[in-house]
Amino acid sequence: MKLALITDIHANREAFEAVLEQAHLHGAERIALLGDFVGYGADPAWVVERVQDLVAQGAIAVRGNHDDAIVLGPSPNLVEDARRAIAWTREQLSPAQIEFLASLPYKVEDSGCLFVHANAHAPTGWEYITGRSEAVRSMHATDCRHTFCGHVHHPTLYHMSSTGKIADFKPVPGVAVPVPGHRQWLAIPGSTGQPRDGNPAACWAMFDNARATLTFHRVPYDHETTGAKIVAAGLPRTLATRLVDGT
């Protein structure tokens, strides 16, 4: 089965639409949504509604820290721009949409894979996986051979051998990477709605469990329209300008 991995949409309709279209063209049979559907962007209601539709059709979805902030209130760790976006977003969502976000689990295990927003060892602690030590801690917390995470806004792939040797590398878009089950893998597809690796193109990845391959993808989208919506909504202008250079 071909599984599309999409995360950190952040209320960016144009990026989400572009990624869903490309995932369909690449033959995705199921979708896994790894959280942070809202925050930063100007189309939270549309994005949440689309996520609801996809879940109704069989998609996997987990809750991210920005989704959590809508339900429980922003944590002290959120920067001021993010807090302002959360306050604005709450006013755009219906009670049913907020209830939907509240119903999402923090992690899902399915077919030997773990799906979680931040990490496997403390899914509600929102610790970032920024290097090998955090990746090892996460992989030690699960028996699943493949873990798929969001939270970090640039694509990375970690793997650990049966002897505990850890390695990582930056994937090349469009190139299938073998991810056999005799190793443990932790993949971060990168952000669909707010990439931060210097490339403004939206991120997503495709896991083919029949072939045991993982392919990372980048999709250009109309980020100028997205940015204009953010400014028109009265959200911080920095949330629009960072889409241009992917930072």
Number of strands: 12
- Give the rounded overall mean pLDDT: 95
Count of helix runs:
8
Can you give the helix content as a percent range? 25-40%
Low-confidence residue ranges: none
| Shape category | globular
Lateral strand order in the biggest sheet: 3-2-1-11-12-9
Strand content: 15-25%
Explain this structure.
One of its GO terms (molecular function) is phosphatase activity. Pfam families: Metallophos_2. Residues 1-206 form the Calcineurin-like phosphoesterase domain. It comes from Sphaerotilus mobilis. With 247 residues, this protein is an alpha/beta fold. It has a single domain (2-245), classed as 4-Layer Sandwich (Purple Acid Phosphatase, chain A, domain 2). It is 34% helix and 22% strand. The strands form two sheets. It has a six-stranded mixed sheet. Strands 4-5-6-10-7-8 form a six-stranded mixed sheet, with helices on one face. Helix 1 links the parallel strand 1 and strand 2. Helix 3 (65-72) crosses helix 5 (95-103) and helix 7 runs antiparallel to helix 8. The radius of gyration is 17 Å and the shape is globular. The mean pLDDT is 95.
